[in-house]
Amino acid sequence: MTKNILVVGPDGFLAREVLTQLSAGERSRIILLGRKEMTGRDNYFSDVVTLKKAVPEVDVVYLLGAYIPYGAFQSGDAALVKTNIELVADLSLSYPESRIVFSSSVSVYGSPLQLPIAVDSPFNNPDLYGMSKLAGEAIVRNHKHFAILRFSSILGQGMNNLTMIPRMIAAAKAGTIVVWGDGGRLQNYIDVRDAARLCLLAAQSDKNIVALGVGAKSYSNAEIAGQIGLLTHATVEFSGTDKSPSFVYQVEESYRSLNFAPLYSIEQTLNDLIKP
């Protein structure tokens, strides 16, 4: 039987890879809910009311669209509420029997009180973006069938160029990477192809799950810069101080709950970003 699969935020970085993997897998009718006004496409909608009238029932909702205020995570932007909270509630109410796969963020943890961070670690003063994702999670937890995936930094071709690694790569191509502080800060990354596969596994599960969508280990900024330097023959310099917290995760429980293991190493991902 053909399933109705709804992908929310189809133009987003993660959603594009999810759509690629869906098209290569099971037979299904894929419906898209995005921000653009489009004509001539019977599977694309820009508002929930019109969508519900045209598609009364949906089997799986990949809720991948989010408003991310890059560079202004403490700004009180109304889009945080409209997209990250109200849209989640509208879809949950419109399709109560669907399975929702909700793309959340490790931003919900705020500044970690201890490392490694586990799924049930306490939240500590998350920024407004993190709070909006927590509110979205609370809605999804009240849905009948759900999976919540808290993603770390997702890497791959087509990612946002304002984030650290694309900036490092751009600097490397100019000859020199500058790392703040001593480069000891630890951060976590997951390849977009692994992140999308995790979404598909979450959709296939029959359990209600909250899991970490993170890489198998965290890497220091110095390690990342060094690897990029090796691939580009750039030099690495250190400057100033970096008081930002490190992030390390306890991944075993999350991986086991979805029978998941990453397929792409950080070296493979960086190489693909530098030499597409």
UniProtKB/TrEMBL annotation:
Q: Which InterPro entries match?
A: Epimerase_deHydtase, Lipid_A_modif_metabolic_enz, NAD(P)-bd_dom_sf
State one Pfam family annotation: Epimerase
The protein's matches in CDD domains, at most eight in alphabetical order, are given as: SDR_e
Question: Where in the numbering of this chain does the NAD-dependent epimerase/dehydratase domain appear?
Answer: 5-208
What is the protein's name according to its record? NAD(P)-dependent oxidoreductase
